[in-house]
Design a protein that fits this description.
Number of strands: 0
Strand content: under 5%
Shape: globular
Distance between the termini: 26 Å
Radius of gyration: 18 Å
Helix content: 55-70%
Number of helices: 9
Order of helices and strands: HHHHHHHHH
Largest sheet: none
Oligomer: single chain
Structural class: mainly alpha
Length: 206
């Protein structure tokens, strides 16, 4: 049985903080993928996710439910990532590299292609990682996470036209590296062990 976010939030606000784990498990994949839009370091992404969840929990009483919880927690994560980037940029220059050429990405399940597909998925993720931040983030939100235009606008605090322009630009940049098709749905997987670790760490701190 899948619970509505607002019902879970009401239970949390009524004292059942363990229910917060349901929200974390539901949105870990999304936050991880969007975190990859800003940061390339796995440990930093997980740190930002945990901080976002903790701040979300601490401010849950202020959540007015006029927007979706998923959009609200995504906005908190983005702020955490941007703060982390600002700290890094004090000593490092953030450079965007040229995207690499990729082979055709397929999703065949026969034994001969399973290993190849893993390599191709890694190459595709690398190519997405090399997009400039504002294009990478839009691509992950819209094409990988399948967020709506309205959700993306709200999370990034930009206009609908900006979302469309950036997404088209991101696709153009990727298209130069892709020969045919790709499968985005299984990129940046956040496995069960890491999901458990995030939930346990946050629950221990709230």
């Amino acid at each position: 049985m899948e619970y509505e976010d607002n019902d879970i939030i009401n239970e949390i606000l009524n004292g059942d903080k363990e229910r917060y784990a349901l929200l974390m498990r539901k949105y870990n994949q999304r936050l991880y993928r969007i975190g990859r839009g800003y940061l390339n370091d796995e440990a930093e992404i997980e740190d930002c996710m945990q901080e976002a969840y903790i701040k979300g929990y601490q401010n849950l009483v202020k959540f007015e439910k006029r927007s979706q919880f998923s959009t609200w927690i995504t906005r908190i994560l983005i702020n955490e990532c941007l703060q982390r980037l600002k700290k890094k940029q004090r000593v490092l220059t953030y450079d965007n590299e040229e995207t690499a050429d990729l082979m055709n990405y397929t999703d065949k399940r026969n034994p001969e292609t399973v290993s190849l597909n893993k390599e191709l998925r890694s190459l595709l993720e690398t190519t997405i990682d090399q997009l400039p931040e504002k294009y990478r983030t839009i691509f992950i939100m819209r094409e990988v996470e399948k967020m709506s235009i309205n959700q993306t606008c709200e999370a990034l605090e930009i206009s609908e036209s900006n979302v469309k322009v950036r997404l088209n630009r991101a696709k153009e940049m990727l298209r130069t590296s892709l020969m045919d098709t790709y499968t985005a749905g299984n990129l940046y997987e956040f496995n069960l062990i890491r999901c458990d670790r995030i939930a346990a760490n946050v629950l221990a701190r709230i």
